[in-house]
């Protein structure tokens, strides 16, 4: 464990602990620090330069009881962003259970021990599985068809168990398909990021199946804002869908990229996967009316901002879309 005590603002007596500083975590940190939050982070990577002097950073491992204990010391709210699974991956199921579910169980026990006020967990729309009726509300049945969805759902159940038996306040955010600046263009997850990576390399965008798979794409700034609201929400609801509530096919996303990007955008089709849910759009009524939070960034605006972030030239329509939220 390596602790970098670099936080300069100690005005908040109980810091917010963030577990995992990947795509979502890193964007969350930037927004939270911008709002004056006192932050402690546990991540296996060293502290990025942009956060030096602004927070406490523990370079450690979720599997280490000592590292997690240090991260939770005095914490008021914990954000759990750590996940080692990606939908569609061929996985060692025993190892994935250990790294996701078992490590979260250890976390929950320590949260009770440390008297943490609230834990916010980023779950996934994959817990719902296949539904013909769209959009899918929080009350819909959960029948995941991937290990990723099964692990997320198992963690949700343990969170509710600890809430019932130990009074551990929990908020569960079932995320749709977050995208935007900061998502790895060389990763295995995130259609928009993968697409932009291929555009940058002058390669066709790989599309599984006929491209008519429908997804609910949520710009990262909107996702982060909703997560921040969950930290202080007084609602008795524990479960929230977080997304745009609008579905787009992969073909529609590619068509929009072509209108926004000033260089050629090509696509190639490959075989579909058994874990690909045909249609996934979330009902975000609870997010809208309970959290009083709505998505502000349209797909066109979000795609244009993401293209610009990666230095890709924009068409006139793309330039206009940068500010047309």
Automatic annotation (TrEMBL):
Pfam families: Epimerase. The keyword Isomerase applies. Keywords: Isomerase. GO terms for molecular function: isomerase activity. It comes from the Bacteria. Residues 17-243 form the NAD-dependent epimerase/dehydratase domain. Pathway: Bacterial outer membrane biogenesis; LPS O-antigen biosynthesis. Belongs to the NAD(P)-dependent epimerase/dehydratase family. This is NAD-dependent epimerase/dehydratase:3-beta hydroxysteroid dehydrogenase/isomerase. It comes from Dechloromonas aromatica (strain RCB).
